[in-house]
Amino acid sequence: MRRDLRPPDRLPEAEAAELRADAEASLEHWAGQLRRKFSAEFAAAVRAIGWPFNSGGSTGGGSADTSTPVSASGSASSGTSGSSGGKERDFVVSFRRFAQLQVPAEASGRSLPPLEVMLEPFRKKFAFHFSGDRPTNDPARPEIFLTQVLKWIKEHDAFLGQVVQPCLDQVGMSAWDVREEFASGLMELVKRKLGQLLEQYRELPDKEEADLRLAHLINELLALDRELAAVGLPSAAATVGSVLGEPRWLAWWEGLEAKFAQARLDEILLAGDAWSPAGGVEDSSSSSSAAVPQCAEAVMALVQALGGRANLLRTDLHKRARLFRVQLDVLEDFRVRLRQVTRRYPTSDPRWFGALNSLQFARDSLTDWADQLDYAELSRLPESERSIHGAVAAASGTAGDEAASRAPATAAAGLADLSSAAIADDDDSSGAGVFAPVARRLAATQSELLESLVRGILDQLAALLESLGPDTFLSGRPSDAPALAALFLAVRDSLQACRDRLQPAVFRPVWRRLAAGLNRLLMRQLLGMRFSHAGGLQFAHTVTKVFMPVFAQYCGRPDRLLAESAQACCLLGLARGTAALLRQALAGPPRDGEDPLRMLLDLGVSSLTPEEALAVLKRRIDLDQA
C-alpha cells in the first residue's frame, strides 16, 4: 500500500488555523520518523548485497566490504546463492517500501529517497579520493576521476536496469528512469569537481598552461560523453556541459576554440602536402589531378570536429550558437586564404585548380551537414545569433565587390557578364540551411575564380582571332585561315586541361562560360570581316563541324551554346539569291505580307534580331554585286 503523507487538504485555509498547524506538525514528525526508519532499513539492505559493487581495480583507499556481493545481474557472486538470493529479496522489499513513502518536501521534487541512499557511498568515495593532496586528485589529470565515475556507472548499470527499475515499475513509478537518475547523481559530483578545477585553472600564472589544461579537460569530457552514449545514457553527460556553459567559462572556451582552430588552419595550409590529392594518391592521372586537396579535407574535418565539441552544450541552443560562430569564422578564413592563394599564382598553376575544388568540396560538405539535427535546430535562431562575427565579415567583404575593384581590362572584356543569370546554377546555397550565408560567400568566390579562369582562356582565344585579317575569307581557300586551326586546338586543350583538373561540378560552369564567351568572340570577329560565298561556307564549316563537336561531348545540343554564331553562319551559307532577297526584305521598308522576323524563323534563325541578321548579311561581298 502506498504511503502518501500529505497535508489534509480538506482543512480550509481561513478556518481552524491552529488545527491545521497541529496536523502539519504531526505529519512532519511522523514523516521524519518513517523516513529515518525506512532509510536505516534500506541502508542495511544495501550493505547486505555488497553495494557498491567492485569488480576490482578500485582507485584505492577505503575499507574492504566482507559481505557477499550480488552481481550486477542480481545473481550471487559466490557459492552461497541462497543467502544472496535472500539478501536481494530483502533489498527489493525494502526499496519498494521506501520508494512509496511520499513526504511533503519530496512530493513535488525530483528526489528518489532510496536512490539517494544508494548514491551516498559513492559521494564518500569520491570525496575521499579526489580531494586534498592525494595522488588521485591531480588537477592536470581530470581523466582519473572521470574514468572512475564512468566505471561506477558501467559496473552498476545492469543491476539498476534489471533489479531496481522493475521495483519502480511495480509500484507505479515507471516515470522514473533509475539508470539515468543514478548517472545524473554521479554527474553532479563531476559538476562540482569541474567548477573547482576551472577555478584552479583560471588562477594559474601561466595562461598558456591554463589553456592547455582546459583543452585537455574538454577532450576528456567529450570522451566521457561518447562512453555514456555507448551504454545508452546520452543525456547523463549533458548536465556537465552546464558548467562550461556559464558565461565566464563559455567566453574562455569560445576564445580557446578560436585560437586553436586558427593555429590548426595555419598548420594545414602551410603543410608541404597541403595541395596534394587527398587519399594519398601519388600518380598524375586525370582522376587524381581532379581530386580534392588534402588541405580542403583537413579544414572541413576541423570544422566538423568543432561542431562535435559543441555537443557538450546541446541542452542550450543559444550557447551552442556561440561555438557555431567559431565554425563559421574558420570557414570564412579558409575562403579568404583560398582567394589569397589564387592571387599569388597564375591560373595555370595546380593550386589554382585546387582552390576551386576546395571551394566546391566545402560547399558540398555544408549542404550535406545542413540536414543534421544539431544544425537544423540552430536554424531556428535569429541570424544575428548564428552569423559570422561582425569584424570578420566586415573585413572579408563580398567576393563580388572584390572582383569589381580588381577586374583588369582584357581583350575579352565587354563580351558578356559571365556571372549573369544564364549561369546562375553555380550558386546552390539554398540547400545549405544554417550554413547558407557562408555557402553564398563560398559560391561567390568560386564564381569569381571561375570567371577569372575563363577570361584568361578567352584572352588567349581573342589573341588568336586577332591574327585573322578582315579579308581572310574572301578567297575561301582552307589555307587562308590557319588561325582557326590554332583556335580549335586552344579551345580543345583548354577544355581538356580543365576537365582533368577540376571536379565535375566545378568543370560544368567552366565549359558553359567558355562556350558563351567563344560564341561572342566569333560573332565579334564575324562582324569585323568580309566574306565571299565560298569564304562564308568555309567559316560556317569551321564553326559547325569543328567547334561544336568539341562541346558535344559535354552537352547534347552544342548548337544552343553557340546559337548566335551558328545561325550567323547559316546566313553566310545561304544561296546567293535567297540571301539577296532576305537582305532586301530586312533593309527595305516593310511590305504588305512580309514579316522579317517570320522569314528568319523559317530559315531556322531564332537567336538573331532582324538588325543583327542584316549586319551579318552585309558582310557578304557577293551580295553587293547582286
From TrEMBL:
One of its GO terms (biological process) is endoplasmic reticulum to Golgi vesicle-mediated transport. It comes from the Eukaryota. PROSITE patterns: RINT1_TIP20. Residues 64-81 have a biased composition (Low complexity). Residues 54-86 are annotated as: Disordered. GO terms for cellular component: Dsl1/NZR complex. InterPro entries: RINT1_Tip20 (IPR007528). PANTHER family: RAD50-INTERACTING PROTEIN 1, RAD50-INTERACTING PROTEIN 1 RINT-1. This is Uncharacterized protein. It comes from Macrostomum lignano.
